[in-house]
Amino acid sequence: MVSKKMLDLGNIRSGIRDIYEYGTKLAEKIGVENVLDFSLGNPSTPAPREVENTIRHIVTELSPKDYNSYTSAPGDKNSRLAVAKNLNARFGTDYDENNIFLTCGAAASLNIIFKAIIESEEDEIIVNTPYFPDYKVFIEGQGAKFVLAKCSDDLTLDIAELEKRINVNTKAVLINSPNNPSGIIYPKENIEDLVKMLNRKQKEYAHPIFLISDEPYREVVFEEESPEFLPNLYNNTLVAYSWSKSLSLPGERIGYILVPKKAIDYTDIFAAISGSARVLGYVCAPSLFQKVIKECVGVKPNIDVYRTNRNILYSALIEMGYVVPNPSGAFYMFIKSPNSDGRDFCERAKNYNMLLVPGEGFGMKEYARLSFCVDTQKVEKSINIFRILMDEYNK
Ligand code: PLP
């Protein structure tokens, strides 16, 4: 009656949503102020004032026809050009509107890319553990094999592990830096090693291996260190970007795909991206927000609260003896359970109305993920609970 494949993908429970729904019910019972809900990655800071002012300006000064209409499939030319110019100024590139395809956020960008490049069900796309759980649904949904490569103990890319997974069917390697769930930014040398290895493997198999860079957190970084701009290092890079997190617009659905001219068969890739977006029914990215992006592409996100939360949590957890990498970006902490059982850790936290997400959905069952895009007060309240939990384990 229905597609078995879609049924199976639809029935994969989202660990994140499950905990979030549990938290919503709990909040109805005991009051939202008493639930320390660290489950979802919904930005807690509102969209920057410039975004609000631009929306106000558009809806008061323009006719609804100007901002409610269809645009061309890749998006309004001037909006795409604004994105291209912003990238050129930051990364010394020479992009124009023909390199940018505006989308309904990173999830759309990724699905469009996967559908555009997958040629057969033998094709494989490699993802590094820990990973954003929806990757599995997206990759399998678009008809390729989902292949996992474990990261090193410090959660940076393990190039030797990755290399072992590459074979004649490898279509792409997907990376995400800053990473959800670890907050790690893959260091420059790590990326350089990846690029060397991929270039070697492309030669060996005599076909392109795409590097797909999923970058919704590019702008959410706490240190000087920022993620490498991969198209400048590896020609066959495709970037999936989103303003969901950087401009706190997750419900508005706006992002882009960058197809650099240096990518092999650039013209065909861009055409296949257009075909894929059409088949998936995206039509065009939201028209009003294409206009917002044209004006706000250079606006810096306000990440002060995330940085404060990160600092409070990280120093407290390390002092208590938890194993946790210090997130350089995004707004997640990936905490190792003291008994290496992430689910047990989350269940124990629930007893104190503190909600974390078990790491198994991210491919590492020893861990739990905490989203610190919340009010700082909640982070402060959590410290005592983490101490009680550590004492329980040490008994
Ligand atoms: N990729 C990663 C790593 C994410 O964390 C998310 C959302 O949390 C997405 C993609 C999807 O983002 P978007 O809202 O832009 O579709």
TrEMBL record:
InterPro entries: Aminotransferase_I/II_large, PyrdxlP-dep_Trfase, PyrdxlP-dep_Trfase_major, PyrdxlP-dep_Trfase_small. One of its GO terms (molecular function) is transaminase activity. Transmembrane segments: none annotated. Pfam families: Aminotran_1_2. SUPFAM superfamilies: PLP-dependent transferases. The keyword Transferase applies. Keywords: Aminotransferase, Transferase. Residues 34-383 form the Aminotransferase class I/classII large domain. It comes from the Bacteria. PANTHER family: ASPARTATE AMINOTRANSFERASE YHDR-RELATED. This is Pyridoxal phosphate-dependent aminotransferase. It comes from Lachnoanaerobaculum umeaense. The lineage of its organism: Bacteria, Bacillati, Bacillota, Clostridia, Lachnospirales.
